[in-house]
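hi!! sorry for the late reply, been swamped w classes. u asked for the two structures so here they r. pasted raw, havent cleaned anything up. first the sequence of the first protein and right below it the tokens
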Amino acid sequence: MDLNRISCDEFKSVPKIPLVVILDDIRSLNNIGSIFRTADAFVVESIYLCGITACPPSIEIHKTALGAEESVEWKYYENVCDAINDLRCKGYKICAVEQVEGSISLPQFIINNCEKYAVILGNEVKGVKQEAVDMCDCCIELPQCGTKHSLNVSITAGIVMWDFFKALYR
């Protein structure tokens, strides 16, 4: 069955949504691969890998990315603050995905299709570093009504990317 999928080379020339996903200190290579795959599906501009977050090429990342690590542009930064400063200089609005005082619930967050955005997703246990949160323009959180107060980082990334995709895809 032909699904009319484009090639990796064709993907590189397709217009992207103005969204950079920053992964800071993500431990699981499966989570990283899953986020690459979702970023490919929603034509995300780029992924910034920071700190201990592993970089392609990696067999473990490939297991869940299924090649998206080759289609989606990515960059590595040793320090997340350097990534934030780089994006801020390029005119991006920086948003941490974190439960903090004053965070905006994702359904209430207004995505302006005239702006460029970067979202930071932090370590699976510790979340986004406080120093990164302090540098952000805002914090976004996902509303949750169950007994747990967090989701897997790749699930969170998928929900956030989908919301931005709906608002920014032209």
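now the second protein. again sequence first, tokens right under
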Amino acid sequence: MNVQNKKASRVRRHTRIRKRIRGVAERPRVSVFKSKNHIYAQVIDDDRGVTIASASTVDPEIRGAGLKNTGNREAAKKVGMLLGKRALEKGVRKAVFDRGGFVYHGRIQDLADSAREAGLDF
């Protein structure tokens, strides 16, 4: 499977997921995107179209954490913990999880689990 087909398949899955998942003020959406080298996560209120909190492997807090590789499961765990901490600071306790069309496995699962450990409920 070439890269264009793989990306198109992920976008189709994400579109299907987004038909059912919507973040509101009471339960914003935790959106995840991963690339080969990085992982990004946001807490989004879709009603207002506002990003409440975000974290990624390009954040200075994670870059300075001494990670050798930002595209692995260890980095995803750190992003999840940071996202959970930032969301709690903004008063977000409950959320819905949007895996972005990616399989709930590996880095995506580790990010979600560590965000739950930090206090997010989804």
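hope this helps!! also noticed smth abt the second:
The CA atoms of residues 96 and 102 lie 15 Å apart.
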